[in-house]
Amino acid sequence: MSLQQLKQQVLEANLDLPRYDLVTFTWGNVSGIDRDRGLVVIKPSGVSYDKMRINDLVVLDLNGNRVEGDLRPSSDTPTHLVMYRRYPELGGVVHTHSTHATAWAQARRAIPIQGTTQADYFHGNVPCTRLLSESEVSEDYEGLTGHLIVETLHDTPPLTMPGILVANHGPFSWGKDPHDAVHNAVVLEEVARMSWITHQLNPQAPALPDYMLEKHYQRKHGKNAYYGQNTK
Amino acid sequence: MSLQQLKQQVLEANLDLPRYDLVTFTWGNVSGIDRDRGLVVIKPSGVSYDKMRINDLVVLDLNGNRVEGDLRPSSDTPTHLVMYRRYPELGGVVHTHSTHATAWAQARRAIPIQGTTQADYFHGNVPCTRLLSESEVSEDYEGLTGHLIVETLHDTPPLTMPGILVANHGPFSWGKDPHDAVHNAVVLEEVARMSWITHQLNPQAPALPDYMLEKHYQRKHGKNAYYGQNTK
Amino acid sequence: MSLQQLKQQVLEANLDLPRYDLVTFTWGNVSGIDRDRGLVVIKPSGVSYDKMRINDLVVLDLNGNRVEGDLRPSSDTPTHLVMYRRYPELGGVVHTHSTHATAWAQARRAIPIQGTTQADYFHGNVPCTRLLSESEVSEDYEGLTGHLIVETLHDTPPLTMPGILVANHGPFSWGKDPHDAVHNAVVLEEVARMSWITHQLNPQAPALPDYMLEKHYQRKHGKNAYYGQNTK
Amino acid sequence: MSLQQLKQQVLEANLDLPRYDLVTFTWGNVSGIDRDRGLVVIKPSGVSYDKMRINDLVVLDLNGNRVEGDLRPSSDTPTHLVMYRRYPELGGVVHTHSTHATAWAQARRAIPIQGTTQADYFHGNVPCTRLLSESEVSEDYEGLTGHLIVETLHDTPPLTMPGILVANHGPFSWGKDPHDAVHNAVVLEEVARMSWITHQLNPQAPALPDYMLEKHYQRKHGKNAYYGQNTK
Q1: Is residue B114 within 8 Å of residue C97, measured between CB atoms?
Q2: Domain extents for chain D?
Q3: Of B150, B185, C89, D36, which sees the most CB atoms within 10 A?
């Protein structure tokens, strides 16, 4: 895949954010990575989706040096870069302030695994990070937000838990490419909405048992998966 | 009706799922049956609605043997087949993860009969199943989900209760044909939404008395029905 | 105004119900009255809005005798007729199952007057009726629903309280003409939604004081009204 | 900028209210000011957005004398004028009855600062005013509503808190021009919605710590801001 093709993918993935109703104004950003070249393509900061053109996208190396583009990259760029450096399996990263996922982040609560909808994508509760300390914020806010995500995932393979809530901020999600990362952002917002309603109907609603979680997660992602057309 | 006409009906009924805002991505499926030929037409697994063509639909006999179509049928196919085999009056079956109905399923609560909106379609509370056991899930998850629905309906005629909540999963609905089954899926989602709001306004809201339930159900479905233009 | 013009008004007012998102399928109806001729125009029963043509509308006298139209009128027609006979100032009547207003009706709670939005249209709490008894339902369900509304309004001039919740059923609204009645149905749904959210944020939220209610109601409807362009 | 250009801006800003789903019918108004000429342009009272033309806008001096336009200005005009006279930095003012912000106003609760979404625009909790007294309402309701906002802001620079909830009424917002004021009205409605959901998920959700509030507010508005493309 050429860098131009990746830029086209990242552009389309960014335009999907308003299409799926995940953003107000410019409150979201998608990036993608070309692993061979070690280059990351990301949305410019504060540019509205309806005015964004392919050449407005910013190309950076993994250390954040600008390689292409005249605009300033998203202020969340250091968070994306930490994720790409830490997890070689990631091809796309997304940050939004989607309504329901952000509300869970503000409530500082993990989204509990209560149904098969979540189990089809997330291998358990969607975690909520701790809050960065004052010294962390002043030292390197956006970079340490990335490390906070890594700390919270601990030893979870990131593609089995393709999203997280950053406390008092909002959701990040990721995937094998920019399109897949946005797909997971849509799912995260929808399960956040379902779990909010579930919580109101029954604050003591039980968790999905492990055997149901495994059944749904594996029938879609396991080695004997039988959901969809491209399974093994 | 020719098989081709049924396929057209099933295609349109599937496309109605996103039109009525019942699905995210591919999270839903509709089937229909040709009782004379004993053939079921169903959505292929994991194919998005905007790319689905009539020849992508899969035709199966009632034992699940593929008769037409190159794609893999919906992973929920065994559930549909159990319903068709058990209830000869069914002409269409739908499964979705519609937001509010799924939330009730996650809360493991029946939708109580609290208003005439529900009484116009559902002859009482919309039940929520028990959870399948670990051995049931490993034995035949999708087939036993169908038997679970049958077990929960017990001796209720299915067209008088044209929908159900499968615990921690989501709603199934059905009807005399695929279009009718989708119609009932829309109603189920709307009564799930209304009952959620009702529950928040008054957790002790009383049930609709039986005489009101009967009045509304019978004026629409009884032998002296006087709602609509095609009544007796 | 000719009867044809009234039919056109009633058609447009019915088509406004889906436009303002007040109805699912055919769950609503609007009527209008020609006071000079003593004729009421109303939606036919169970006909979908996108297929309804002007000649599908049914014309009745105030006793319910059909004067024009081949279709069966809305099953709620007797309720509309009671309202027109009792209140000569009414020119249009609407019934819907709009989501939030219906939820309040199912909760059997009046919508409390908590803000100027409601005070601009409704001179106080929007009342919720009692439930009809079993003998009332079997005697004349739809007609006695009209009398129930009249009983609940008691001595309130209906144009100062242009809507009500029928317990466990849904909202009725009215106005000086069909368009105005739909306008009030939209307002009723929106104040029902606002009051639901208010209730969740503060179950003890105080009522709007009388002097604020009077100020807002009178600046729009009083003899010295100064809201809008057509005031005295 | 010519007066005609300001009128065009005010027209577009008013039309943005329905576009961003902030208003039902005519329940909102935007004004803008030409500081050099001392002239305010504002929406006419009770005129629907789809029929409003540029020459329907009303031009007033800062004392409320009509300079241009045949229509009566918005009934909330005196509130706007107080804001412009008191705060020379304001270029636009907006009033709406947007659903969630109005619900907080009806609950008589400030919107707590619980996330970075709010911190990006509002330097702390969005305050809710006290209720005007009966004598204040009868003396000069709309003018004293403006003074009530000023009283509530106290010594807060208004562009650091570009919105407020007027108790039992609804939100007002403002900005450096009419477009910016509407932008802030959209943000206010969205943070009101997020905070409502947060409150339901965790009524004891903690406030955003000051150092996070400062970080987000300053990275966007401070002298070393690095969000967006036009920062210093």
Answers
A1: no
A2: 3-221
A3: B185
Q: In whole angstroms, what is the distance from residue C211 CA to residue B182 CA?
A: 50
Fold of A3-221: L-fuculose-1-phosphate Aldolase (3.40.225)
Encode pLDDT of C146-194 as tens digits.
Answer: 999 999 999 999 999 999 999 999 999 999 999 999 999 999 999 999 9
Q: Does D201 touch chain A (CB under 8 A)?
A: yes
Contact C108, B206 (CB under 8 A): yes
A137 vs D contacts (CB less than 8 Å): 211-212, 215
Are residues C24 and B186, on separate chains, in Cβ contact within 8 Å? yes
Band (pLDDT 50/70/90 cuts) for residue B232 is: very low
For residue D212, which residues of chain A lie inside 8 Å, CB to CB? Answer: 131-132, 137, 168
Q: How far is CA B133 from CA A114, B140, C95, D149, D223, in A?
A: 16, 11, 46, 60, 61
**Residue from A205, A220, A193 nearest A114 by CA:** A205
CA B212 from centroid of its chain's CA atoms = 25
Which residue in the block uniquely carries the two structure tokens 């007796």?
A: B232
CA distance C144 to B37: 50
E strands, A74-228, in order? 92-96, 163-166, 170-175
Start-end of H helices in B154-229: 178-201, 210-221
Class level of CATH domain B3-110+121-185: alpha beta
The 8-class DSSP code of residue C72 comes to: P
Let me know: does A76 contact A144? Beta carbons within 8 Å.
no
Unique residue bearing structure tokens 């993935």 = A13
pLDDT digits (tens, 9 = 90+) for A71-122: 999 999 999 999 999 999 999 999 999 999 999 999 999 999 999 999 999 9
d(CA C24, CA C26): 6
Each residue's pLDDT, cut to its tens digit, for chain D (232 residues) gives 899 999 999 999 999 999 999 999 999 999 999 999 999 999 999 999 999 999 999 999 999 999 999 999 999 999 999 999 999 999 999 999 999 999 999 999 999 999 999 999 999 999 999 999 999 999 999 999 999 999 999 999 999 999 999 999 999 999 999 999 999 999 999 999 999 999 999 999 999 999 999 999 999 999 989 888 875 4
Q: Mutating which of D106, D109, D199, D200 best tests the C interface, going by the most C Cβ atoms within 10 A? A: D106
Task: Count CA atoms closer than 13 A to D11's CA, side-chain side.
Answer: 15
CB A82 within 8 A of CB A143: yes
d(CA B49, CA B52): 5
Residues 6+ apart with CB under 8 A from C186: C20, C22, D24, D25
Quick one: DSSP state of residue D228? Answer: S
Distance from chain centroid for Cα B199: 24
Q: Please confirm, yes or no, whether B76 is among the known catalytic residues.
A: no
**Contact present, A85 and A76 (Cβ < 8 Å):** no
| Predicted ipTM of the assembly | 0.96
- 3-state DSSP call for residue B232? coil
Instruction: Confirm or reject contact between A219 and chain B (CB < 8 A).
Output: yes
